[in-house]
Amino acid sequence: MTIEQRVTGFIRENFLFSDQATPLSPADSLMEAGLIDSTGVLELVAYLEQEFGIAMADADIVPANLDTIAGISAYVSRKQSAAKAA
Amino acid sequence: MCGIAGYLGDVRSEAEGRAVLGAMIGAIRHRGPDGTGIVAEEGIGLAHARLSIIDLAAGAQPMASADGRLEITFNGEIFNYVELRAELLARGHRFRTHSDTEVILNLYAEMGPACVERLNGDFTFAIWDRPARTLFIARDRMGVRPLFHTTRNGVLYFGSEVKALLAVPGVSAELDPIALDQIFTFWFPLAPRTAFKDVLELPPGHTLTATADGRVAIRRYWALDYPDAADADGLDQRPDAAIADDVRALLEDAARIRLRADVPVGSYLSGGLDSSLITAIARREVSDRLRTFSVGFESAEYDEAEQQMAMVQALGTEHSSILCTTADIGRVMPDVIRATERPILRTSPAPLFRLSGLVRDSGFKVVLTGEGADEVFAGYDIFKEAKVRRFAARNPASTWRPLLLQRLYPYLPRLQNQPQAFLQSFFGRPEDAADPLFSHLPRFRTTAGAKLFYAAETRRQLAGYSAMDELRSLLPERFARWHPLSQAQYLEAGHLLPGYILSSQGDRVAMAHAVEGRFPFLDHRVVEFASRIPPRLKLRSLREKHILREAAAPLLPKTIANRVKQPYRAPEVAPFVGAGAPAYVADRLAPGAIAASGLFDPVAVGRLAAKVSRNGEVGFKDNMAFLGVLTTELWLDAFAPARSSAPPRSVAAA
Predict the structure, then answer these.
(1) Which of B313, B273, B319 is nearest to B295 (CA)?
(2) Pairing relation of β-strands B63-64 and B44-50?
(3) Which of the ends of chain A has fewer CB neighbours closer than 10 A, N or C?
(4) DSSP 8-state assignment for residue B647
(5) Which are the contacts of B370, defined by CB distance < 8 A and separation ≥ 6?
(6) What is the pLDDT of residues B583-617, one digit of tens each?
(7) Does B416 touch chain A (CB under 8 A)?
(8) Domain locations in chain A as residue ranges
(9) Which of B150, B129, B126, B145 has its CA nearest to residue B208?
């Protein structure tokens, strides 16, 4: 599974809950869709750190990295390649 | 305080009328276990379940006027009945009792429906005017006492709780999907709508007049109002100290007349400013040692025992406390839902249900409470939150303004770790600033997360409906001209207060144990006076209830008067998950049960249940959704068992 598929699965399971109807595209804002509330961000960060073995600095916890599935996927792959390069 | 019920219309025979009234009043007997009374005649019936508080010997109801023209059934108290009675006597009226009930009768005889404007009290009553063949029903200004009604086969039925109406043959409970959607947005249905299809609530500050020929007129006689923000003359411009003195004097009088009873009156004492102030005033007014009551929690996160004991010591009251354990909340929730008669999204009614049980077991029927101060004097965090959000929204580029949001909720540890950029986007969207619901948007949006769990059929029924649009359409025309704080206060005091605080968390859970709450902060003189206090004196910078603290200072220890508000909270999902969870939770949330009742998506509910079991008390959104789904299923069990998938109740073997 790609990063995007795994992240999408997590978000469906934990924030959207339902498989029915509701479309979820990689560019949708999770905040605007009401899927992530103020504590949801912390759940998301905990998941990404555990699932992908990355550590998120406070400065990285910003909407640009976390508000869309596309943004999350791009961020995770950047972090992973940086870790490999190091 | 009591329960009332009745009907207007043709029920075939007097005997049948008496039978219906007996069933109706029997269904709400918990409100008035001290006696029942029924009056049935052609086309009209009134019933009463009595909790004796004033004129114990002669106050039985329904009560007729001396000339027999009027007949009344009355739930509640008229606190200024002593003064009204003296006025009426001076004008030549005669009295046979010392009850407040007879004061209403004489006042109505003199003034007709306008009599409500003279009443300072928490009431609903129904008066049958025999010569005019007219039924007049009135409800208090703030909505302390309830009144529900429905019409079946041309007969108007009314009662203090919906249970009374469900006792009428042919009336059955069906969940109104629009009401569900409103509850899943605001925590309550928008009056006059109730959770029950075709059952209406008489809104606070309204009267209902019905004639024997079937005409019904509902009128508003009082409304919450605030001065226009631009109208400096509308505000009280006197020095702060003069305003604070008046607040204190008004509250002293409001509490004093609320101690009127022929039974002892106790006081709730949470340890916060509001109940401490009321208790401090009451203690000076009563000759015996004042009895106080509080509820405690196992976890220090919710418990306020330390502050309570500090006040008990400072005031020298005789105090009783009941521990509400996490397990207690789970255990009593089905009873709580039978009492609230609607799904709830917070557990906060459950500890108050336990507390009223303690009061009753202690031999008390009446308690003063500090409820209402946060609405009237701007104590809730939501007011501060809205102020900071507006402040941040005025300069979206500022990086430090949103940091203030973090300071709003010091008691929510998880929020302290929130990344600033997310806080900002959660609490503020540029387009929100023009929304009349601005102050409440984060709460409503978080609550609305519960709608993710609707079944496809529920979604279909609600297609095109927006609860927030309906609330916007109900706002008074002058709303737009009010100060932002007044707007937020209106949403709390005009909607949440009667819709949730005074009902699900107030009358219904207190009366389940035949306990009457009295609310000095909701005396309409206090409410009207406070509406003219400049907003800057209520919320001064981010100091909530500033002017009330100034008013209270001479009466309270400094530590209490200056204490930052600790919201009343209780464990939300912990009572329903883990090894100690009540058995009904797994039964009600099983995929087959959810599918059978048909309102929610079984797969989504299963994932939510798994998530809260795994994570415990995580976030408001998940907590509220979980409780909303669970208590909706409990509501079906209690009121519409045919719809619910609960195993049929076993009939006790003879």
Answers:
(1) B319
(2) unpaired
(3) C
(4) P
(5) B268, B270, B272, B273, B274, B275, B276, B277, B278, B521
(6) 999 999 999 999 999 999 999 999 999 999 988 87
(7) no
(8) 3-17+26-85
(9) B126
Q: In B495-602, at which residue ranges do the beta strands (DSSP E only) sit? A: 516-518
Q: Most A CBs within 10 Å: which of B422, B601, B622, as the mutation test of the A interface?
A: B422
pLDDT in tens, A19-72: 766 778 899 988 877 788 767 888 898 899 999 999 988 788 888 899 899 999
> B609: which chain A residues are within 8 Å (Cβ-Cβ)?
none
Residues 593-652 of chain B whose Cβ lies under 8 A from any Cβ of chain A: 601, 603-605, 607-608, 611, 615, 618-621
B184-208 per-position pLDDT tens digit = 999 999 999 999 999 999 999 999 9
Task: For residue B129, list its beta bridge partners.
Answer: B70, B134
pTM: 0.94
Task: Give the residues across from B318 on adjacent strands.
Answer: B291
Within 10 angstroms of residue B392's Cβ, the number of other Cβ atoms is 20
In the chain, the amino acid numbered B480 is A
Which of B418, B448, B608 lies nearest to residue A41, judging by beta carbons? Answer: B418
Cα A55 from Cα A61, distance rounded (Å): 11
Beta bridge partners of B370: none
CB atoms within 10 A of CB B523: 27
Which part of chain B has CATH 3.60.20.10? 2-174+195-220
8 Å CB contact between B133 and B211: yes
Please tell me if residue B453 touches chain A, with a CB cutoff of 8 Å: yes
Rounded-to-10 torsion of CA B591, B327, B296, B543: -20
- CA B24 to chain CA centroid, Å, is 23
Shortest CA gap B175–chain A (Å): 23
**Do residues B563 and B273 make contact, with C-beta atoms less than 8 angstroms apart?**
yes
Question: Are the beta carbons of B238 and B167 closer than 8 angstroms?
Answer: no
Which helix (H) or strand (E) is B215 found in, with range?
none
Q: How far is B115 from B72, CA to CA, in rounded Å?
A: 14
Query: Which of A16, A18, A37 comes nearest B426 by C-beta?
Result: A37
Task: Report CA-CA distances (Å) from B583 to B93, B458, B586, B622, B632.
Answer: 60, 27, 6, 21, 17
- Which CATH number describes the domain made up of A3-17+26-85? 1.10.1200.10
Choose the closest CB to A34 out of B419, B422, B445. B445
Which residues fall within 8 angstroms of residue B20, CB to CB, at 6 or more apart?
A: B7, B11, B45, B167, B168, B169
- B422 interface with A at CB cutoff 8 Å: yes
**How many angstroms from the chain centroid is the CA of residue B479?**
23
A77 CA to chain B: closest CA distance, Å? 21
Of A17, A39, A43, nearest to B608 by CB-CB distance is A17
Residue A50 at interface with chain B, using a CB cutoff of 8 Å: no
Question: Which pair of tokens denotes residue B548?
Answer: 């009330």
- Of B177-181, B184-188, B413-417, B507-511, the range with the lowest mean pLDDT is B413-417
> Token digits for B434?
């023009």
B426: contact with A, CB 8 A cutoff:
yes
* CB within 8 Å: B422 and A37: no
Q: Rounded CA gap, B35 and B23, in Å?
A: 14
In A, which residues are within 8 Å of B421 by CB distance? 61-63
Q: From A18, which residue of chain B is nearest by alpha-carbon distance?
A: B604
Phi and psi of B599, rounded to 5°? -85, -30
Beta strands B121-129 and B70-78: pairing type?
A: antiparallel
Chain B residues whose CB is inside 8 A of the A61 CB are 419, 421-422
Q: What share of chain B is helix, strand, coil (3-state, %, to 5)?
A: 50, 15, 35
List, in sequence order, every beta strand (DSSP E) within B290-442.
Answer: 291-297, 318-324, 366-368
Domain B2-174+195-220 has CATH 3.30.70.100: no
The set of catalytic residues of B is 2
